[in-house]
Amino acid sequence: MKRTDKNEYGNKVLLLDTVMGNINISGKEHYLHEYQAWNRALSYLLEENAYLKTRLAQVLDINTDKQFVDLAEHFQNSFIFNDELIREMEIDIRAQQEILKKSAMADLLKGDQEAFVKKQDKLRNEMEYFEKKFSQMKNEFNHYLVSHLKKTG
Predict the structure, then answer these.
(1) Of 30, 12, 23, which is closest to residue 120 (Cα–Cα)?
(2) Is residue 6 part of a domain?
(3) Could you tell me the pTM of the whole model?
(4) Which of 1, 9, 75, 124 fits 17 for a cystine, CB–CB 3.0-4.6 Å?
(5) Number of structural domains, the chain?
(6) How far is CA 23 from CA 19, 33, 42, 47, in A?
(7) Is residue 8 classed as helix, strand or coil in its secondary structure?
(8) Is residue 74 a part of any domain in this protein?
């Protein structure tokens, strides 16, 4: 069961009733956890993107068919674009994290909360969208390689 309350500093906290008792989670703690999760996800995606680029280079070393090379160029451009997006999201997340660190949660609750929450929602939506698109692109790339392997034996 979820309910909210205020802690001793007047900050809103989420109370979760569990089998082991109540767990207090402040908004600030939640946001910090969210940043950590996003940063872990972006690190993984950056590493996975590097692996896909390496795999593409390996396949291109053994196949120079014009049609294959053209499609490979499309994927290479996607990988480069992904690197850029990941770096931009890391910067945006760091900036949002700094805002949270510099201002007390009470200050955010008083004045800038709406802008802060809006930006947080935007980042959350961007992360969700990027993770879905990355997964789709990765699946397309793997299908592309498998279909090529079938043709070359």
Answers:
(1) 30
(2) no
(3) 0.76
(4) 1
(5) 1
(6) 10, 15, 28, 35
(7) coil
(8) yes
3-state secondary structure of 49: helix
Residue in the structure block whose two tokens are 């802008």:
115
107 occurs within a structural domain:
yes
Asked whether the CA dihedral 145, 147, 152, 153 is positive or negative, the reply is: positive
Q: What residue numbers bound the domain in which 89 lies?
A: 27-152
- The DSSP-derived string for 10-39 is S-EEEEEEETTEEEEEEHHHHHHHHHHHHH
Tell me if 16 is assigned to some domain. Answer: no
Question: Among 3, 44, 46, 47, which residue's Cα sits nearest to residue 25?
Answer: 3
- Placement of tokens 């510099």 in the chain: 102
